[in-house]
Amino acid sequence: MPPDWLPELAVIPAGEFLMGSEDAEEDERPVHRVHVDEFLLSVQPVTIAEYARFVRDTGHRPPAVYELPLVVGAGGADRERAFRQIAMPYVWIDAEPPAARAVHPVSLVRYDDATAYCAWLSAVTGRAFRLPTEAEWEKAARGGAESKRYPWGDRLESGMANFLVDPAARERHGTTACRAHPPNGFGLFDMAGNVWEWVHDWYEPGYYASAPARNPAGPPTGQLRVLRGGGWLVADVRMLSCSHRHKVPPDTYSYAIGFRVACGA
Fold first, then answer.
1. pTM value surpassing 0.70
2. Is pLDDT of 222 > 70?
3. At residue 124, what are phi and psi to the nearest 5 degrees?
4. Of 69, 168, 191, 210, which is most buried, counting CB atoms within 10 Å of its CB?
């Protein structure tokens, strides 16, 4: 039996799929056919328990509120106060994770934290772990179904994902344990809701018009990074769709952002 800190992986088969959506945001168009080579993807986001092994082994700074990300600092004192308050249940105290959330997805991680975890996991396993590309993530989220809006189909169903059904419940809401909702067709959990997930790519709004048809990996540079999948704070259900591209500054982190890992098959 593999150790409990080693992520369980699912095989995402090679093949083509239709990426994007014609009835969504402009940066999700045009819908285009993309070929992705076979790869492996963790069946759930990296959990707090899995991330704790990385923190213990490396001394990497644990999830907490450090320097404020641009998206919070620019919002003034009220936004900072709200950010700190909502973050409290997710802050690790003296490098100790919140015990009651061990099987919840780790959050309060930046893009650089996610890539540092991938580098550590690669070193201890001898396999080349990384973040999935946007194309890999979207192919995996669709679970083998062609052009469906959500990982489970076209109809929004509250029991299929953790998102903010009632915006008035924001203060009482939060992450849920991974695997609390049904998996998609590839056996992947939480591809919509719970936490946003970092992917490899830089963001470019018009990238789909010129992206390569085989294994696109995003532009070489950029100002913003891409998150996929929506999180527990999402009330706008369009953000839960398989095709939605959420762009943020690279220094962004929050109580609703995590990641999952990929590697070659």
1. yes
2. yes
3. -85, -15
4. 191
